[in-house]
Amino acid sequence: MDKKRVRMSDVAKAAGVSRTTASFVLSGKDCAIPEVTRLKVRKIAEQMQYRPNATARSLVTGKTYRLSVVLNLPENFHNSFSMMDRYFTEVISGVQTGAWKKGYNLLLHTIEHPDWQHLRDDILSGASDGCILIARFADDPLTTSLVEANFPTVCVSYRIDHPGCCFVDAENRQGGDRAMEYLLSLGHRRIAFLYPGDHSSWGWERKEGVLDALRRASLPESALVSYSWQENRNPESCWLMEVREKLLKDPNRPTAIICCDESRACWFTEHLPEAGLRVPEDISVLGFNSTIISQRTTPPTTSVAQSLTEIGNAAVHVLDEILEGKLSAGMEHRFPMQLHIRQSTAPPSAEYEKKGSMERV
Amino acid sequence: MDKKRVRMSDVAKAAGVSRTTASFVLSGKDCAIPEVTRLKVRKIAEQMQYRPNATARSLVTGKTYRLSVVLNLPENFHNSFSMMDRYFTEVISGVQTGAWKKGYNLLLHTIEHPDWQHLRDDILSGASDGCILIARFADDPLTTSLVEANFPTVCVSYRIDHPGCCFVDAENRQGGDRAMEYLLSLGHRRIAFLYPGDHSSWGWERKEGVLDALRRASLPESALVSYSWQENRNPESCWLMEVREKLLKDPNRPTAIICCDESRACWFTEHLPEAGLRVPEDISVLGFNSTIISQRTTPPTTSVAQSLTEIGNAAVHVLDEILEGKLSAGMEHRFPMQLHIRQSTAPPSAEYEKKGSMERV
DNA sequence: CTGTTAGCGCGTTCAG
DNA sequence: CTGAACGCGCTAACAG
Question: Which one, of B12, B16, B7, B107, lies nearest residue B52 by Cα?
């Protein structure tokens, strides 16, 4: 079997010095130890293939140089890993870069079902110095419990209503506003708004932005038809198809859709035509995130972009500052959103426009 | 600041029992401790918000229930994180599922440049029980050094030439064979083969498979024109464009391309037409992996699929068995590959076919 | 069935 | 500058 790992005391003995000395030179402290001894100890350590034991070191220093990362669960439990979603891929990419720059590794907690108490215990076990939670919800008990336990925590793309909550997110309100402003400028006057529901801070914020633009244009809130996928517990496709059915049967059909989720938006871009609604001739589709997914639909989907890698990166920086004690709790970082106009949006067709105006009277 | 965490001894004291007793009931051992004391200790622990310290526990048990994961580096260093590649996304997804089933968390080592010695020390620091290396190369010094250090290690999608090397991969040779067989059956007689080079086990294996099919059809090896991107150190696009140039200028131009990398294959599907080569009319393109990336090019790209999630999942199982001592080193797991025929491949056009036959005489 | 004791490997203080 | 000594929080012998 494995011979025992060589310990620091082994190195010290072999080098003919005390363990203290060995400890000092091997942890690279700037204490006053003669250059000769330093070199000798290092050389012996190298020869003996000495590797410091991270666990023992963590036990005494209280630092692990690891950051916990928790993704949310996909809403349909078909797929076990939200990382399949391009959103997570990009955020994690930014987190990875930030972690590297600050000298952390990432501890990816594996979860398959919403057993948040177990997950909380795992996070609080001391295996990491802090925690980055990604795309969870405003009513998430896990987040609340971590923040209340005073565990260094940063939320990405959402926040909870607690004074100690630190988070990094996009300017969702501004993004929603921009999306709506654009559709209004094209002439749309009846617009469907598809979002997760008000338990999601980004869903809620984007909705507020959309309403801002509506009010600024002096249009009634009834111009917006909201659909929430919050309560939906059926497989994904069902909700999408139900919404499509409702759109088709609506006598006063919206001429545009704003959909807060990228993959759902893309589904509409590609699957409304099957049901007889051409995109963008009969109906415009506007989504969010604007990753490669939106770029590659037919036609490409207009989308409100956020810099996901930048957000992930910032999350690590904020967490690092908390850990360094440079930051008080309750910080908020926001990044702007930007509209990427593609071919899934166009002015409403004359026919629908006319019909719309008549009914508005 | 933070009050000290409550320790097991605090719980024991509060419950009026010894630390041993507390330890036994809190680690859920099946020893004979009266139900009353168990309940009492548990209740006190709950009230005091006791969380076992994973570091201390690991120090004494020698187990962390963490698995190290190391991705390779993207070959162009523009993008810091290979996880942006769909290949990694899917493999990690499988790894995550497997890890969850076996009760492990994942330790994602952050690396930005090829400082493999530092990375090796990090992996050998005892912060994890074993290691999964993904899509590295046959000559990778990191892999060699870990295997030789006898650290529990599983390679995914590659292997090194060492008796102790455990790996999980697809049947690359069979996949290459199948791809070539298919193109030959369409009538292609001159085919370009784009691969990383022979330092990559999958590149080499797929090439062997391609040659198998060629030999079986009694065709000369000269029917295959190989291009390797191994030596290429320029930005990605340059290599792609250079190959495209060479294809264009080839008087005896191949009528089909087999490209071992999915995103490169997709680039050809979409960017050969710009240069005047229609796909598939003038030239067929066949790639690998067959993820959503291949499905969504215009036209969709024919591709040899492998079940990446299954491979990732298997990697964890193999590693777990090694850790449980159920498995000797040097295991190999292979998964079959399957051809997904799409619209980027077709019989060679009559003109090229004729020209090809004349020149073959 | 419970308490006592000895480490796990390392960081750090405090006399020599 | 070094060695002895203590403690991080917990597990697991070994006695009582």
Answer: B7
B109·A105 Cβ contact <8 A: yes
- Chain B contact present for A82, CB below 8 A: no
Cβ neighbours of residue A258 closer than 8 Å, sequence gap 6 or more: A176, A179, A180, A183, A191, A192, A193, A194, A210, A286, A287
Q: Are strands A153-156 and B256-259 parallel, antiparallel or unpaired?
A: unpaired
Cβ-Cβ contacts under 8 Å, A296 against chain B: 296
* Closest CA of chain A from B18, distance in Å: 22
Residue A276 zone, left/alpha/beta (φ > 0; ψ -120 to 50; rest): left
Query: Is the CB of A34 within 7 Å of strand D?
Result: yes
CA distance B109 to chain A (A): 5
Domains in chain B, please, with CATH? 8-52 (1.10.260.40), 66-170+308-337 (3.40.50.2300), 172-306+340-360 (3.40.50.2300)
**Alpha-carbon torsion A53, A54, A57, A58, what sign?**
negative
pTM, entire model: 0.90
Mean of the pLDDT values across residues B291-300?
Answer: 92
Residue B155 has pLDDT above 80, yes or no: yes
pLDDT tens-place string over residues A275-321: 999 999 999 999 999 998 999 899 999 999 999 999 999 999 999 99
Question: Which positions in chain B touch A100 (Cβ < 8 Å)?
Answer: 80, 110-112
Could you say which residues from 296 to 325 on chain B have a Cβ atom under 8 Å away from some Cβ of chain A?
A: 296, 298
**Å: B60 CA to C7 C1':** 9
Task: Tell me the pLDDT tens digit for each residue of B163-221.
Answer: 999 999 999 999 999 999 999 999 999 999 999 998 889 999 999 999 999 999 999 99
